[in-house]
Amino acid sequence: MRIVLVGPPGAGKGTQATRLAEKLNIPHISTGDLFRANISQQTELGKLAKSYMDAGNLVPDEVTIAMAKDRMEQPDAEGGFLLDGFPRNVSQAEALDELLTTEGIKLDAVLDLEAPEEEVVKRIAGRRICRNDSAHVFHVTYKKPAKEGVCDVCGGELYQRDDDSEATVRTRLEVYHTQTEPIIDYYKTQGLVVTIEAMGPVDEVTARALAALKREGDEN
Ligand code: AMP
């Protein structure tokens, strides 16, 4: 399957993407994770991306599209992929369509994770992530690690992302509404959008997403 995951920051895209990719046996491609890997390796791309990310803005399309394309062309993505955080505006969605058309393939679904604004701000401001693996996510109130600052899964150090401060989250939400939400209409015209309620226990959200994807698959 080829799936795009959209939703505001803090809706649980990363968490759900990891789980869904595992269940569906397809690679999880997160442009945010790819940028963060470039930042920690101090590449030129990382240096460029960091200034935009820290401010809560989108990294320019040209470099983002090139990076996503490069990742989608890796052998493990031949049979399908789950895109998390890409596309994030209409021109990226158009670039993705072009790429898919060239390859003679299509998206199967666009999963839209819905969550109320105040909830996502609370989720993000308290979020702590493991330095070893961004899939190990904790929260200072909702999902406390057994030992403060230490990952329960692997013992790694937990940190707060530079762009998870409350002020930056407000900017990211604004960017989401003005630039990313229009892609939902773009994909609605292609009949691809499946909306999922992203609140509630993580397992239930995953189950809702899998059930919705199965329905889509049966219908198409
Ligand atoms: P995420 O991990 O998906 O929340 O992304 C973190 C940050 O990386 C975003 O706030 C953007 O600054 C940048 N980013 C990730 N994906 C994209 C994209 N598709 N286009 C532009 N910037 C992106």
UniProtKB/TrEMBL annotation:
Span of domain Adenylate kinase active site lid: 127-163
Keyword S-adenosyl-L-methionine: no
Coiled coil (UniProt feature): none
Binding site for AMP: T31, R36, N57, L58, V59, G85, F86, P87, R88, Q92, R161, R172
Domain of life where this protein originates: Bacteria
Binding site for ATP: G10, A11, G12, K13, G14, T15, R127, V137, F138, G200
GO molecular function: AMP kinase activity; ATP binding
The EC number(s) this enzyme carries: 2.7.4.3
GO process terms (BP): AMP salvage
Reactions catalysed, as given in the entry: AMP + ATP = 2 ADP
Function statement: Catalyzes the reversible transfer of the terminal phosphate group between ATP and AMP. Plays an important role in cellular energy homeostasis and in adenine nucleotide metabolism.
Name of this chain's protein: Adenylate kinase
